[in-house]
Amino acid sequence: MNEKSEFLGTEKINKLLWQLATPAIIGLLVQAFYNLVDTFFVGRALGEQSVLGIAGVAVAFPLQMLMMAISIGIGVGGSSVISRLLGSRDVNKAERTLGNVFSYTLILSIIFQILFFFNVDTILNLFGATADNLVYAKEYAVVILQGTLAFTFGFVLNNLVRAEGNSKVAMNNMVFSGVLNIFLDAILMFGFGMGVKGAALATVLAQLAGTIYLLYYYMSGKSPLKLELANFTPKFDLIKDITTIGFGSFVMGASNSFMMLVLNNVLAVYGGDLSIAVFGVAIKLLMLILMPIIGISHGLQPIVGYNYGAENYDRVNESVKKSLMITTLFGLAGFILLSLFPGTFFSMFSTDADLISSGASALRIMVLASPLIGLNVIGTTFFQSLGRARPSFFLSMCRQILFLIPLVILLPYYFDLSGVWMAFPISDFMAAMISMFLVWREYRYFQDRSSSNA
């Protein structure tokens, strides 16, 4: 087996987890930051129309998230399969999987682009567009759809690079594309006066540059896996494995998109464009909490996958335990930060007094259960890394599909607009409890396996 991946089974877990997760955390935070900057520039560039512009981007954002869900599903599925193959020393099959990930991504991306591009008005109306914000939503969505391949390949390749243990390459890509996005935002929106369209174009161009960077990494021979054209021919068994394992991540991403669709429509009824704009800002502020947690899960994935394949069960348990401790601390830190200064954060995006006041009230409610979010994220990643599709799929559905969406629909009947915001901490708590039970059960099982092998 290639020695480039063997450190996953020998290095101290604490050092290894931070070594793999830190680049992912930095890269993901940069990504979250440039999403915030996108919204900041939209709010500042449109002046008195800032609420409508931010609302329009919020309406179009589920489309972008659905695109990301497809690519992350393929990437996570492929990376889980590749990690386990590297752990069991089957490099040839790992390389065949890599090639199939490429062809699978290309096929699904083209299908997605065709279906959504020619039905964009219908899609945006379904996503909760109003008569006032539709023009901004369409400007953003059309450009994003034109860059579908840049998005999908960028996210897929990032996951594959992490599966090899080369998290620094993934970090460099995310930082590079994130900084470039911010730079292009300023030029296109203020220098060329392109408004919302400029924000979308900046995002597409930055993703394209990142994708080219990662393609160079694979084609230059720096990866422990070789990218060969012969491996691009789709193989049913490989596509099935990728889809089965990655389906949980796809559902989690797609449920985020569906959640935003439902929320935008509910908010249009109970609060109009102002409430949609509040949510558009709040959801990106919440990413400041979620991204470090996801970064830890990215660091965890290759460790669990490799050591499970190598039957090092003590290392599997230790890595999960430490990941849960770290993500809980991240969630607590985010809760404190956003609870203490919500108005300050909202005032960065607009001078509209109603937006700032409403946003501060909403954010304080939404972050109440933030310290528990890591349980669900780590639980989902844990089972994905083991190749356990059913529990990972179930956990990926818990927070958004099973709990959040029904609560978003139900609670406003009793608590009006506040009920929408209350749905977030309640669903976080419920998903965390279920995740804790399933992870603990598996944790005990590995303890027994480890004892019997001693």
Strand and helix layout:
Elements lengths: L12 H34 L3 H38 L3 H27 L2 H7 L7 H13 L1 H16 L3 H25 L3 H25 L16 H35 L1 H38 L3 H28 L1 H6 L5 H14 L6 H13 L3 H22 L1 H4 L1 H37 L1
Helix pairs in contact: 1-2, 1-7, 1-8, 1-10, 2-3, 2-5, 2-6, 2-9, 2-10, 3-6, 4-5, 5-8, 6-7, 6-8, 7-8, 9-10, 9-15, 10-11, 10-13, 10-14, 11-14, 11-17, 13-17, 14-15, 14-17, 15-17
Strand content: under 5%
Largest sheet: none
Mean pLDDT, as a whole number?
Answer: 87
In DSSP terms, counting alpha (H) and pi (I) runs of 4 or more, how many helices? 17
**Low confidence ranges:** none
Percentage of helical residues?
over 70%
Radius of gyration, whole Å: 21 Å
Shape category: globular
Question: Would you tell me the structural class of the helices and strands?
Answer: mainly alpha
Order of helices and strands: HHHHHHHHHHHHHHHHH
What count of structural domains?
1
Strand runs, count = 0
> N- to C-terminal separation?
25 Å
What does this structure look like?
- This protein has 454 residues and is mainly alpha-helical.
- The protein has one domain (9-449).
- It is built from 17 helices and no strands.
- The protein has helices at residues 13-46, 50-87, 91-117, 120-126, 134-146, 148-163, 167-191, 195-219, 236-270, 272-309, 313-340, 342-347, 353-366, 373-385, 389-410, 412-415, 417-453.
- α9 (236-270) packs antiparallel against α10 (272-309) and α10 crosses α14.
- The two termini are 25 Å apart.
- The model has no long low-confidence stretch (mean pLDDT 87).
